[in-house]
Design brief:
About 30% of the residues lie in helices and about 15% in strands. It is an alpha/beta fold and about 450 residues long. The chain folds into 3 domains: about 40 residues, no CATH class; about 260 residues, Aspartate Aminotransferase, domain 2; about 120 residues, Alpha-Beta Complex (Aspartate Aminotransferase, domain 1), CATH 3.90.1150. Strands 3-9-8-7-6-4-5 form a 7-stranded mixed β-sheet, with helices on both faces. Strands 12-13-15-14 form a 4-stranded antiparallel β-sheet. A two-stranded antiparallel ribbon has the order 1-2. α3 packs parallel to α9 and α9 crosses α11. The radius of gyration is 24 Å and the shape is globular. It starts with 15 loop residues before the first strand and ends in a 22-residue tail after the last helix. Its cofactor is pyridoxal 5'-phosphate.
């Protein structure tokens, strides 16, 4: 239905939405920015909101996001049955609380905790909140006397910059250098001192999809402590990779098998295969989470410990996470993640064979890869490529890397559950069709300032 002004007068901001009466009942006009004086028929309200949302991008074609865009219909039905359950109210909804506890223990076992059935952990609204909690635990365990600092790569997600800002911790970033796009043990060690609360390592950099060398960082810190230096814990930000490596790279040691790893987080709504709204954080042992961070409340009906930043939130995503664990099991997760990696690596290989592009990564860690234009391609930019693909409905982000590689601009593709070989073929077809038009240009039409995608904590450093 058309959403235009009844008098067709152009205005900078619409004050009303005109509703086509063929599809609706009263009222004919609904306000856009003012609180409605009267209620609206539910079908009218639905139609107005539904029609506007049609202008959003297609989530399944969004190759920028790591967030799950497909679940089985049974999961959606289960979530609809749990939207009204408050996750924090464990006294009123004890079975939902039990599902959360089971998920924490399953993840602890998946990540090789010393005693998976006696760890502490919790669900969160996403990996960003989980990182905040892990960072707070590191800060409270720290016993230095100066200004606390945290060591991390410039490729970290922006939630770590927020953590440092919100909780007054100095971030010590390891910049990218040359062909090194992640943290290195040597560079991390150079920034560690007696006031370092922890080192953050990433299993699956959002810039290029690669794993960071967690074991090497831990080994360097072990040697530092053995020489009488500070004893610095490690947190693993496994927003994506913590739900990939256990299934596809079981021999890779990055988790609680390393005694220096104090905590791990992941996104249930990324490669945990759940719709948006759930993350997880698990500590190695109960002692790794200082007791002063655990609050106990009793006004919801019984005394309950809570250590999440958020309070009330729906239990639907937790139920969906437990459903997914039951539905797939270890072998099912392995098959899903292997298919994603296979599609990513094949897509990366065929893009490299097109000619104008060079791969930075190939999707062999998390199923995501970054690629750039060859140095001799000067008539168009990666931002032009992104815009050309958007015209066909694909959302493929283009962005510049942080210090010290701000000269490098890339495209990145994330392959998620539901992105099939068939969809990969369609993407390749559209990219092939776009290249002759791009090659006909005499100069890039779009530069970095035109990019609509700002990336991570390092995007402005």
């Amino acid at each position: 239905m058309p959403l235009t002004h009844p008098d067709n007068t152009p205005r900078p901001h619409r004050s009303e939405l005109a509703v086509n009466p063929i599809f609706t009942r009263e009222p004919v006009h609904v306000p856009t920015y003012d609180f409605p004086a009267r209620g609206t028929d539910p079908e009218v309200a639905y139609q107005v909101v539904h029609d506007e949302l049609m202008l959003d991008g297609n989530a399944r074609l969004n190759l920028a996001t790591f967030v799950s865009t497909w679940m089985e219909p049974q999961a959606a039905r289960l979530m609809s049955e749990c939207f009204d359950k408050n996750m924090i109210d464990k006294d009123e909804y004890p079975r939902t609380a039990a599902l959360e506890d089971r998920c924490v223990r399953m993840l602890a076992g998946l990540w090789h905790a010393p005693d998976p059935h006696h760890v502490v952990g919790c669900s969160t609204t996403g990996s960003s909140e989980a990182c905040m909690l892990a960072g707070l635990a590191l800060k409270r365990r720290w016993r230095g006397t100066g200004t606390p600092n945290i060591v991390l790569g410039s490729n970290v997600q922006i939630c770590w910059e927020k953590f440092a800002n919100f909780f007054e911790v100095e971030p010590r970033y390891v910049p990218m250098e040359g062909e090194r796009f992640t943290l290195s043990a040597e560079e991390a060690l150079r920034r560690v001192d007696e006031n370092t609360i922890g080192v953050v390592t990433i299993m699956g950099s959002t810039f290029d999809g690669s794993y960071e060398p967690v074991a090497e960082v831990c080994r360097a810190l072990d040697e530092l402590a053995a020489r009488g230096g500070p004893d610095v814990p490690v947190h693993v930000d496994g927003a994506s990779g913590a739900m990939i490596a256990p299934f596809l790279d079981p021999k890779l040691v990055w988790d609680f098998r390393l005694p220096r790893v104090a905590s791990i987080n992941t996104s249930g709504h990324k490669y945990g295969l759940v719709y948006p709204g759930v993350g997880w954080v698990v500590w190695r042992t109960p002692e790794a989470l200082p007791d002063e961070l655990v609050f106990r409340v009793n006004y919801l009906g019984g005394e309950m410990p809570t250590f999440a930043l958020n309070f009330s939130r729906p239990g639907a995503q937790v139920a969906a996470q437990y459903f997914t664990f039951l539905r797939l099991g270890f072998d099912g997760f392995r098959r899903v993640q292997q298919e994603c990696r296979d599609v990513a690596m094949r897509l990366a290989r065929e893009i490299a064979e097109l000619g104008p592009f060079e791969l930075l990564t190939d999707g062999s860690h998390i199923p995501a890869f970054a690629f750039k234009l060859r140095d001799d391609v000067r008539d168009y930019s990666v931002f032009d490529v992104s815009a050309a693909l958007r015209a066909s409905g694909w959302l493929v982000p283009a962005y510049a890397f942080p210090a010290n590689r701000t000269d490098l601009a890339v495209l990145r593709i994330v392959v998620r559950n539901g992105f099939s070989h068939d969809l990969a073929d369609l993407l390749l077809d559209d990219l092939r069709r776009a290249l002759p038009r791009l090659e006909a240009q005499t100069a890039p039409a779009r530069g970095r300032d035109s990019a609509g995608f700002a990336h991570g904590a390092g995007s402005h450093r």
